[in-house]
């Protein structure tokens, strides 16, 4: 018989040496004669609990009851009953004495009395937690009594343990036995090991060993009495010493008192069934119990209920016990999000709860769920992740960002939603510093090249700002190839004033990356044009930038003259502290309502007023970087005195074929700016073009409006220009475009004919006279309205068909 019991109890090992767990320090208390130890697994180091029971005689009653408890715990499974993992029985010899020990391994738990001391809850939070714990124990007792027809026989504080998620679980099954009340032939004790139960926990019929009365009673009679003892010990904070102590109800909550008295009824048949306790008692109706219950049956709720619940959860979590929120609610919420049963608003609650965790716990419990959520196709989840990226972005490792996060985030660059594209762009302020150089040069810069010609002006503006912020994370070769082209060829010629202002500030903030030749020949000529920009804020920034770059050139000149630095080219001068950083720009929203297809300075009477708000977070930037709130007012008439703004960057403006698309082949080193020809002859800004045209327009007799004005050919430069490659044409960035004609392409430079005249040093870059065949400044890629037909008689040139 003993061998049979050993076979039932034994696990994978035959002795303590074969126990695959390490035994640690014991807890101060445990049920009965058991000793409760902390333990860890030898395989992965995961925590466990190890219970041991020792005796000198293998037929000792305590060991026999212990074997019964191990067998019962191994076969009974319920969410509110302690989970069994492993067991074994070993013999140890101490001189002439043989010691027999039972080892039972379970999930990691702590005695309830110790956990209550550790939490130290008071007032309402204590009552809410007790209500949740009693709810769980009542479910376990109801399962044993009503579903399994088993009697636990010793429900008290010592028989309850608490898991790492603060759930209460029932154990101590040594006395557990079947209820045989329906068997008329049954005789003798129903509970074989009832002598292990203290007299203070026994109801009257069990104290008298009246087994006939016990068998006539309902199955829950004994355990309902034990549940009453548990309630008394919880709220009194003292261990029950005698049955008479149960009459002291001063510490019992008023809402629970009627049910407490029914549980301890002197008549077994009138004692309250634990299942009815859960249904009827108003004590269990509180915020904590309702919240956890909702989370546990989340799959049964519809989308409206989920959305309402998760929107209230962040504020509700602040009112619940903090430890319970972090150990119980947070894992439930993370699991629900990971498996798709939670709605998008749950992400805000998850991140808010995560902020209450220490950094190491946040990385272990919250970050894995967030990384998995980036693969979600739910647009609302993606928006939530990007909106709150500043809360967790710094905790992500560079490897995780480069390999797992960025590939999913990058899909937002080409999303059809402008809002999602802008959020994706702004998220790069946090993620880009963690990307590898290969990912930045082969992928990120390609997407930014496309976004810099996006149809949304706010996205174009923030792209320029982002480039200025991540410039320090680019290698030197990439900076040389990208920055100037991105800021001067595109940003400074954008039709949106804020985009031009951002380009100027980006140039100033990245001035330390340019040598003196680039500043003098490429940056200053592009910035000087904007000193006559129609927008006053752009003009102000342009003058400040000119002053800054001239100061850098002057410093370099002084250093060269003093022979402190032997050379001019390749000397990088650090930027002025006032423009040393662009951090924070991209985090201000410039999103416009609608898609502005025509970026004209004057709006029609039907156009809506648009508000643009931008705030800089860097206080050192001062007036140069802080963009105040700007209102674009609607007007019913055109302001003829204001020159038109430059055309949209998405139109063909003579700057060559700018690579706008995103290529699938990411193995190349092209990043979207390689095909830009920044040194070709571009269109001048509208104001400068008007001035040049007025200076070169000859005095002639006016002709009818219907007659086309012939091109003036006598205003060509008197002196020839030296032939040079496009890369050597340092003034190409501000040279006026040649007149378009049917015999020459747009990008062909005019041929030079004679030497430079000393009396006219500007003749080499003088603009030719405007002709009627030149494409209007507002012409774009099909965005401008067609030109209205001219009134009056028109001359029609017809040619014969050759018949």
From TrEMBL:
Keywords of the record: Kinase, Transferase
- SMART domains noted in UniProt: S_TKc (SM00220)
**Where does this protein have compositionally biased stretches of type Basic and acidic residues?**
660-673
List membrane-spanning regions.
Answer: none
GO MF annotations, alphabetized: ATP binding; protein kinase activity
Q: Bias category Polar residues: which stretches?
A: 625-640
Region described as Disordered: 597-803
The record's annotation in InterPro entries points to: ARM-like, ARM-type_fold, CIK-Related_Protein, HEAT_type_2, Kinase-like_dom_sf, Prot_kinase_dom
Q: Which SUPFAM superfamilies match?
A: ARM repeat, Protein kinase-like (PK-like)
Give residue spans, biased composition: Low complexity.
Answer: 603-621, 761-770
The record's annotation in PROSITE patterns points to:
HEAT_REPEAT, PROTEIN_KINASE_DOM
Which Gene3D superfamilies does this UniProt record tie to the protein?
Leucine-rich Repeat Variant, Phosphorylase Kinase, domain 1, Transferase(Phosphotransferase) domain 1
Source species, domain of life: Eukaryota
Task: Please report the residue spans annotated as repeat (HEAT).
Answer: 523-559
Residue ranges of every copy of the Protein kinase domain listed in the record: 2-284
Query: Any idea what this protein is called?
Result: Probable inactive serine/threonine-protein kinase scy1
UniProt organism field: Punica granatum
Q: Which gene is transcribed and translated to give this protein?
A: LOC116188623
